[in-house]
Each structure stands twice: as structure tokens, then as C-alpha cells.
Amino acid sequence: EKCGTLIKLSNNNKTAERRRPLDEFNNGVVMTNRPLRDNEMFEIRIDKLVDKWSGSIEIGVTTHNPNSLEYPATMTNLQSGTIMMSGCGILTNGKGTRREYCEFSLDELQEGDHIGLTRKSNSALHFFINGIDQGVATPLTPPVVYGVVDLYGMAVKVTIVHNNNHSDRLRRNNAILRALSPEGALRRAAPAAQAEPERLLFHPNCGQKAAITHEGRTALRPHATDDFNHGVVLSSRALRDGEVFQGPG
């Protein structure tokens, strides 16, 4: 219940919203009511954004107890015990430690997208975007950490979610990657008459346990250690006569 000065909690403290989002861009820090357990997923859904400020949501963990913390205007002001994902990088105690942690930027996420994190039992911290594990953000995380969200800039409202079905979120990831890709930007900018011949890629509509990344060139099962099937992927268009459909093997 203790949170940033502009935060309003609702929905049995599962939803947080920043007041006056068009007038104020910070003082929107919220934390979990208890420390995270090993391998526990802390996941939120973005419910509302505003089209104004240049930055957006940040999420991470901190060793600071919410009951005794003097809440900062933004979590990047804390110089101890805090690891945050901001944009596509990682900040540790307010300083950049990994500039390009993953392909996604939190600043590009839209309403309905999910962001999660978990501290593994081996102390590694992983972030998840729409259900896809982005890999190790830092190998050594303190044993007692709270989840923290900074409703900064464009980010106005989020809700804690508990959902193990990742299929819809995986498809959202595919759409985000296509939109952010240089090829996607070229298609949006160039007239149809100047478009190059359509490349052979994977179709974004795929099996519920599959995901398409790298501009449609890569297919993967993000949760390969948990699931062994539902990983079917198809080409994005029909094959041409004499065309080779081939992977590295």
C-alpha cells in the first residue's frame, strides 16, 4: 500500500495508476507487498499509456523494504540494491550495466503487453516480454528482493497478472518485432511499387508454444524445457517453383 505520491491503487491492490499523467511524469513507483520467492514470476500487464512523454515503464527488483523506503521520484535515483530494466537495457543502482539486453524496448510496448521477471534459484534475474524469456539480465541477484514498477512517462496504469497461457502474448511479440524491424520500417515508408520481391520468412501465425523472432527468420519454442510440442511454424507465403526452403540444419 505504501507507494509513490501520485499512485492510486485499486482492484485489491493488483492495479496501480499514476494520477495526472498528462501533467506529471514521475512519482509513480509501486512495489510488491512481500519479497519475491525463488522462481516466482512477477508479471504485469500494461493497461494504459499516454502519448506524451519520451520515456515509459521500468520494472525490476530492489532490496529496499517498501515499509521503510523513502520513495524516490523515479527508481533510477536509488543508488543501492536496485536492478531495473529500462528501454532495452539494464540499470543497476541507477547506472547502465547492459545497454542492449534484449531485442525489445519497454518504450515501444503497447497497452495489453505483458512484462515479467523472475529471480531464479541460482540467483540469476530474467525478464520476460509477453511470455518470452529474454535471458539472464544479471547472474547475481540478492537473495531477498521485492518486485518494483516505475510508472514513468508514458506508462500510466498496470495490473499484476497470473496467466500461464503465453500464446496470445507470443503473437504480440511477433507483431512488435515486425514493427520495430528495419524491413518493417522500410515497408511503411516506401511506396508499394518500390518494394523488393517478398522474402521467404516464417508466418507470424504459429503454434501456441512457438514464437517468431529476428524479422521472421527465426522460429523457437521459448519454453522448451516445459513443453515438447505445439511448435509448428509455416512459411509466410507459398513456395515458388524451384525455390529452396532451408535452415542451417
UniProtKB/TrEMBL annotation:
Boundaries of every NHR domain copy: 1-163, 199-249
PROSITE patterns, per database record: NHR (PS51065)
One protein family per Pfam: Neuralized
InterPro entries the UniProt entry points to: B30.2/SPRY_sf, Neuralized, NHR_dom
UniProt-recorded name of the protein: NEURL4 isoform 6
Organism whose genome encodes this protein: Pan troglodytes
